[in-house]
Amino acid sequence: MGEVLKKEAYGLAVKDESGVISPFRFSRRETGENDVRLKVLFCGICHTDLSMAINEWGFTSYPLVPGHEIVGVVTEVGAKVTKFNAGDKVGVGYMVSSCGSCETCTDDQENYCPKMILTSGGKYYDDTITYGGYSDHMVCEEDYIIRIPENLPLDATAPLLCAGTTVYSPMKYHGLDKPGMHIGVVGLGGLGHVAVKFAKAMGTKVTVISTSDRKRDEALTRLGADLFLVSRDPEQMKDAMGTMDGIIDTVSAPHPVLPILDLLKYKGKLIMVGAPDKPLELPVLPLIFGIKETQEMMDLAGKHNITADIELISADYVNTAMKRLEKADVRYRFVIDVANTLKPGP
């Protein structure tokens, strides 16, 4: 075998469990025959990035370049690539590869493949660690690239590659996407606000369930929810018992689930999508969505002009953003302006 060719890259990396992010130079593979290379324009910050940065789940490999809500423009395609061309607007989500031949892969559920490779902090076939989207460019196999609709702004679209699919996929899989259904959304944060938008686009009746009245106007007036329910108000909860076909619970913090279950109709479905702050025996995070569903979600977003509500930040603000994210002090998703603010380190 000849020498593997590499291209220089730069980005932001975490070097240890302190979670501090700093400039980092590294290399990416040359564009292979099935690869797409893209210039990263924007990358969303997911709570998973924070958890991985501080090794909350115990399997982080350092140095870690976070980022799996990546959008950019194709700069080069391999000889066998057929779906993309230079100049296309594209995205990369939570995974960059899988075996492609097992039962789950052939059923468009690559996220369950035993050989699925994470976009950030995974191990690629050549035993190198995968580096995520807090970087100037990416290389990814064609089959794991998502096409971004032309009408969507790229910065506010980036979080859909994780938050959007995290709520869209279970709603579709569990049949909660039928017009006229009554869907509850617990929590109005990064996941919850996107869940409301998709549920409304599907034609359902939406009730936001929150612990206080503080986000009532936000939910009803700006996001278009139909009803607002304060979960700590026993009368409101009693009146809503048995009224919902399904509930998407987006809250990560510990909270009582039984009162929420009481809101469901007979055979209703409660879907938990909030990322826990402690390890679960079943690690749910990599198991959330497949590539086909992610593209379907993005196409629906384009049809209904759905984007995330974001705070656009510069690359030198990331450490501050992580501290704010830890306190849930963001409305509702941070996105790094990679192309305009990321500078090579020393």
TrEMBL record:
The coenzyme or cofactor needed here is: Zn(2+)
From which residue to which does the signal peptide run?
A: none
Q: Which UniProt keywords apply?
A: Metal-binding, Oxidoreductase, Zinc
Checking CDD domains in the record gives: CAD1
Q: Which GO terms describe its biological process?
A: lignin biosynthetic process
**Matching InterPro entries:** ADH-like_C (IPR013149), ADH-like_N (IPR013154), ADH_Zn_CS (IPR002328), CAD-like (IPR047109), ER (IPR020843), GroES-like_sf (IPR011032), NAD(P)-bd_dom_sf (IPR036291)
Q: Name one GO molecular function term.
A: zinc ion binding
Keyword check for Oxidoreductase: yes
Annotated Enoyl reductase (ER) domain residues: 19-336
Q: Give the family from UniProt.
A: Belongs to the zinc-containing alcohol dehydrogenase family.
Q: How does it assemble?
A: Homodimer.
Q: Which PANTHER family match?
A: ALDEHYDE REDUCTASE (PTHR42683)
Can you name this protein? Answer: Enoyl reductase (ER) domain-containing protein
Protein species of origin: Brassica campestris (Field mustard)
